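Record type: monomer structure entry
Structure origin: computed from sequence
Chain ID: A
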Amino acid sequence: MTAVLTVRSNGEKLLILFIIRGTPGGRIETSELPTYPSGHFYAVQGKAWMDNTMWKSYLCDLLHRSLVEPWVILLDNFESHVSDASYRIVEEELGSFLCAIPPNATSICQPLDVGVMAPFKRYLRDEWLTEEMIDGEDGDDFDTR
């Protein structure tokens, strides 16, 4: 699973995009995703990765809803983020500006990696471990009393 976290400069958190491994139009997308908690955005991709299709969906379906005035969107240099199509969507459809962080500078100037994403990943890992301990490997419930 990939989680795309977005925050505004004022600290406001936007909806999370969860990219789940599955086939677009398949059972996971049609039967499982509708059971997930509301308040976030879910999509399926063959390897649960961000790709051009997921990025376009993120920009047009999720980010577009959050824009009320022009933004400067800061990104790393991931291929999908800095593609010509990405610049066109951000500028023409979202009325905003895309600004890529210089290559090899993400460890220096990406505070979200340390302040938001690392704690978020730690929380998800702890939740997963708790669930595994309670359910057990054989599916039998573990008595936590």
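Annotation 1: Residues 1 and 20 are 5 Å apart (CA to CA).
Annotation 2: Residues 111-135 form the longest helix (25 residues).
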